[in-house]
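Retro notes, structure queue

What went well: the backlog is down to a handful. What didn't: a couple of records were mislabeled last round, so from now on we paste the full input next to the output in the thread. Example, using NADH-ubiquinone oxidoreductase chain 4 from Spirocerca lupi:
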Amino acid sequence: MFVWFFSLLVVMINFFLVFIFFCIFVLLGVFDSSWGGGLFFFDSLNFVFLSFMSVFVLGFIIFFECVNSLIFYSSLVVLFSVLFFFSGNMLLLYIFYELTMIPILFCLLGFGRQVEKIGACYYLIFYTLFFGFPYLFIYSSMMFFFNFIYYNFFMSYEFVLLLSLCFLVKFPVYFFHFWLPKAHVEAPTSTSMVLAGVMLKLGGGGVYRVSKSLSFFGLEFWVFISLVSMVFCSFICVMQSDGKSLAAYSSICHMGFVLLSEVIMVYYGKSMALIMMLAHGYTSVMMFYFIGEFYHIAGTRLIYYLRGYFSVSLLSCLFFCLVMMSNFSFPSSISFFSEYVVFNFGSSVFFFCVLFLFFYYLVSFYYSIYVLVSFMVGYKVSYVFEGNFLICLPVVLMMYNFFWFVFVI
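Corresponding output:
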């Protein structure tokens, strides 16, 4: 195990070798290999796929990012995230969960351009640590807590609630989400991509770990929270003028749907939650990438000024159109099939879900089409080199890639 970490430190000076190292590491998980003396364990293909997505996002960042420091901090976040997914005990799970916050703080404080970045760091620190303390208290009160990677035994509802709060902050769901828009607005483009594509999946992986202890008790509360998160944040997206803030609240909407899939306790629920997280990871990464590129071109993130690109760059318009189609779950995207399955099963268990999901789909379709039309129609803007957007092709293909269903369904 220490040989692997030493090798990682040696090749850290070459980020391409770091990417190759992560690819080999995830490949071991695909082949169902286990190593590390019980500290790291490939126990589920769900975490292998999430690790693969994290490594894929890192490769995309290495390819387009010019600042080596941002690539280094992004590599650290991906390293801690992969170790989080493959942690063999719950203490290491918590350690790597909290360690991902440190590189993000360096990126915010070191590369943020406004003084509001200090407030965003305060929000990130206090939300993460305040809701993480109950997690440590519970584990210090339990025996053999070093050995459990799953909670397949019954606990009281209060214990499950306190354990879930630690991970729901990184989901995030409504009422725990205030740090995310502030961090996204102040962060550089690559940091926003890591936040949306990697860090938000830590909450999903943590809820995977503790969801076995729910035992069908109190599910109505979690279902209601997820539905409220989806609908409220959809209406908030309509009122946003900043493109980054809109993409951040759109991430909260989609992760609310992921929470609904994980706690609905029906057939295919956990699998469709994985597909949603993969679709959201690639889609949100591309949204923040396009918004960051347009900010470098136009000098603003206001949606009103992101216009006229249809007459300038047809290739960028095509890719951006595919990204927004995936954002509102257009048919042929993998997010559409996962949300369709959860909609069918969820409406059969809780009939009131239909009303919430109707408003969610209606409003999310509206703001996605509004952003798309505002981007394409209008006066001409400065020239855009289409070759910059050719690197988006692999990520766009992953949003419409049905390869995942072969392993999940």
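Agreed that this is the format going forward. Reviewer comment attached to the example: Residues 154 and 213 are 5 Å apart (CA to CA).
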